[in-house]
């Protein structure tokens, strides 16, 4: 009977402690999932720290998370009997409630065992990914130096919290102990501060707040509704306030861009207000002891310790904030890792749900259900309120109450004439006006940051080789001047962005008007000049910005029924998607993304991703100054491909049904994808007079690239703001429809040549396909029986029956899509013999860690693998083949190409496996 009772108590308290146990096991599970390859394509960039400061912050918050789990577990064990009317098992009570020095140290050490394991795994990843660390300019290859530094800082933070607890908490005389208990560190580390007189103002405020809170329920929290709070609740409150202050102070320092001048003043005022309030609350502390006529040796130094600490922290905060404004760069953003943002979320989760379980378990209510109801039920009214304000003509007010996500746009003021948006045929006229010259089409596939960097590396290499080829120099033939179309998806779009922006250097007032001069000095004679400006922004991490948006704005949006416009965004309510777009644009010119700014001196200035918009890009295409491009995205509501482009594919036969009777052209099945300018910028009277938008929008290229790269969960599906139209589609990653970008290229060529083979004009197209994989899925018959027999997949179980549905959907949209694109390209080549296409594919195998990173952070090892592939014989051979074909076809007047439907990938003797480093 006694054993059954003990077992029952253990089971009950394991349930009561479930949130604390979750806090201890979370990072172990995260590490094991990454180590086992389950989440490694996404998680490796999170669990590989790029710098010593990232290691410092990671260690700080790992220790903080596990100490939070310890405090919440102590609280449940010590106060659970009063709250749940069930005493804890004796062994558990001894471990978590005994305040003897030896047992406090042992419990503290045991609580940090998950910390040791997780930090070891982070160091393991750092070694595998060849990361190097430095401190104040001095190289230190050992990441444990920074882990130790961060761990000491975390322990110091919790020591100060404990010290403040000893200084300000006084239990009631009826409690067993007349002085505060040791809850994190032993008593002997705090001298005689427990005997000091607490600051009167702070004590009065704490007592008033205690009485307000205890009116709801006091069992387990205090002796009665008048308080005082029991020790662990008081310490927990102090800890929550401390973590919350750290959280608030990090907001402007870790954002993707510096604060605006208006919000900078508000942040300074808030910092001074919080600091002043804290100093006021402790300023009346005396140096005497609780007993009359007795003094306390620690009272004086403790008061000035907290006074000095508050002033120093506020001063450092203001100094960094003002320096960010001066330099135009957020100093701490890249130093604060995404892992730390996740840990902040985890700490808040443990605090909140520990408090919720301690409160609701008394009433046997399902905590998660209650919390979700509290959060979600008020949001049900949001759409109704939003529609009301839309109907009243107040779209900005409407957006405060709904839960939707919006992307930033520019207001055009007036509609754009449809004829001002070039067509594919007009793009060929402006970009390829000469007969018999070779035109270039580039497609860049999706695949996260690796796809972005690989795309930029291939484009830089092609520019170099074309610019330095003697035969092409004689013909004044350059890659950039003959590029007609660039079609990007997801990471490929992000990689195309800095390359396309270089075309704006033509209009630079700073000397050189040319882009990539055809004669030396070219890229290879100045490797850290133009190539640096093209290839470094895509490799620069944006994942920290996503974490910032998630931890701040998206968290606030989740827990509240309304949202408040953020202080870092003047054009939209920020979220993690806005933060990603801001980071992508910032990386184009931020000093932290360039190793040596001197190499960029003298280059013509270029626009950034917010200054160049689709409307301006369409104007440049009309004059031939910019190639046609599309950053492909997918409409969530229809699953259709949508073009974020500087051109539109005309379809005059697709009028609305109400007008089709007067349309002289018959309806046909060629239904092209529509473009942003066509839908949201052009005059609707030229398309559908029954629909008139509220305003006309233009889209910055940085936002367009982010929309194309809306990877699930990492960034949110977004729509155009309500000020432009009440109803609109939400845009998702372009890879949902076509991860290669080939469908848009085929559609572009089909529209350009029309139905008569371009009126007999012979087109020569060099099709460059930049792929974020090894290409084997395209070139092998993956459906053959031998491939099925060779499959190493395990037998299907009820679990795989459930997951197989999603696996099939994913493979249909991301794996087999390439083979479908090849078939459609083959059909196009066969149907239009006047169009001669030479198809060259640039592939990249997984890196040395066996991963294709999908997140927005690139480790040193992964970057090294990309650079190795860029300099490999296979890539050089593919570039040489491209140059050779252009030379051969530039002087030919008739087609002498090999059979159509042939893609030149790599020399027959090349192998992908040989590139992988041991």
CATH fold title of the largest domain: Cytosolic phospholipase A2 catalytic domain
Distance between the termini: 61 Å
Tally of separate domains:
2
Question: Segments where pLDDT lies below 50 for 5+ residues?
Answer: 507-527, 654-664, 908-918
Number of helical segments?
Answer: 34
Structure classification: alpha/beta
Tell me the total number of β-strands.
Answer: 12
Main sheet properties: 8 strands, mixed
Quaternary structure classification? single chain
Helix content: 40-55%
Quote the beta fraction: 5-15%
- Estimated radius of gyration: 32 Å
Give the name of the CATH architecture of the largest domain.
3-Layer(aba) Sandwich
CATH class of the largest domain: Alpha Beta
> What is the arithmetic mean of pLDDT?
83
Shape assignment: elongated
Can you describe this structure?
- The protein is α/β, with parallel strands linked by helices and 918 residues long.
- The protein has two domains: 2-253 and 332-363, no CATH class; 418-508 and 516-555 and 582-656 and 671-779 and 805-910, 3-Layer(aba) Sandwich (Cytosolic phospholipase A2 catalytic domain).
- 50% of the residues lie in helices and 6% in strands.
- It has 34 helices and twelve strands.
- Strands 4, 5, 6, 7, 9, 10, 11 and 12 form an eight-stranded mixed sheet that branches. It has a two-stranded antiparallel ribbon with strand order 1-2.
- Mean pLDDT is 83; it is low at 507-527, 654-664 and 908-918.
